[in-house]
Amino acid sequence: MSVHGQVKVRTSAEQKAARERERAEKLRLYSTQYENILNNRQLMDSFNLLKQTENILVDHPDCFTLWNIRRESIVKLENDKQKEYLEKELQVTQMCLKSNSKSYSCWYQRQWCLKQLKEKFNLNLYQNELELCKKYLEYDERNFHCWAYRYYLLERLCPSSTSELEPFYENELSFLRSTIGINLSNYSAWHYRSKYLDKLLDHNPSRRSTLLSTEWQLVLSAVYTDCSDQAAWFYARWLLFKQLGIQLISEDEHIKPLEELDELESGNKWCMLALCQLWKGKAENNDKRINYLEQLANRIDPDREQFYRDQI
């Protein structure tokens, strides 16, 4: 609307009211469509149900009840139509992911489709799906739903031949390293790195010492790059105490580099906490350990005071 040739600029209150009206209308429409499906689903054929549920899910992909109805509808179809609609369902879920790329229901529906296509029609699309994951991880490299889906795919692409397992694991570790290099705060990448390092170590125990030493250098590089980023510190704790164990933790290789970092980044809680845990495990520097824990509790991180005092 314009007044005397000038476009009227809405105030914040007007904009908020307009958004509320739009939201209320969308909710009304959604509720009407949703209730219509639930009340009349026994009267509708599968094709009609699939069409109507799709209309809602494109904008509201988190409604798991409608996905359940779609699964029931698809499995009732004849084989040729079932295959067609399973393939189409992959397109539907991709449209829905554009609305919400972190929808649990949507990613699960995609898994279900792949499983049905593989088991009933021997159609293996797992490898192709990795490209979709690549696309969504480029958009948001910390989308843990996509990471979980990617892990699901890789578990089904894992070779059965023992000779092919090691290159498979190494290839994934290489991908994860490059992803971490882009964003050190990528918790999912660190998490799945721990899973595939575990698999590689179990597959070839003879490489354990070399692999863990190389992995520790990766961790040191990360914490020296940004010692305030907790993602790398969580991984460091897993590597030190779950993989190496206190007996194999070396003063020169593991503790000294963190003591040097502590000097460079005085007061960094993550480095101080890691050192306290290492000193306790090695039964050394107890006075300094207690002093650090008191500093953490009283001054540096008082919100977690009791956590630190419990370790004194």
From TrEMBL:
Q: Which GO molecular function, any one, fits this protein according to its record?
A: Rab geranylgeranyltransferase activity
The lineage's top-level taxon is Eukaryota
Q: Which reaction does it catalyse?
A: geranylgeranyl diphosphate + L-cysteinyl-[protein] = S-geranylgeranyl-L-cysteinyl-[protein] + diphosphate
| Cellular component per GO, a single term | Rab-protein geranylgeranyltransferase complex
What UniProt keywords are attached to this protein's entry? Prenyltransferase, Repeat, Transferase
Any idea of its EC number?
2.5.1.60
Broad enzyme group: transferase
GO BP: prenylation
InterPro entries referenced in this protein's UniProt entry, alphabetically: Prenyl_trans_a
Record has Ribosomal protein as a keyword: no
Question: Gene3D superfamilies given for it?
Answer: Protein prenylyltransferase
Q: What does the sequence similarity comment in the record state about its family?
A: Belongs to the protein prenyltransferase subunit alpha family.
State what this protein does. Catalyzes the transfer of a geranyl-geranyl moiety from geranyl-geranyl pyrophosphate to cysteines occuring in specific C-terminal amino acid sequences.
Provide the protein name.
Answer: Geranylgeranyl transferase type-2 subunit alpha
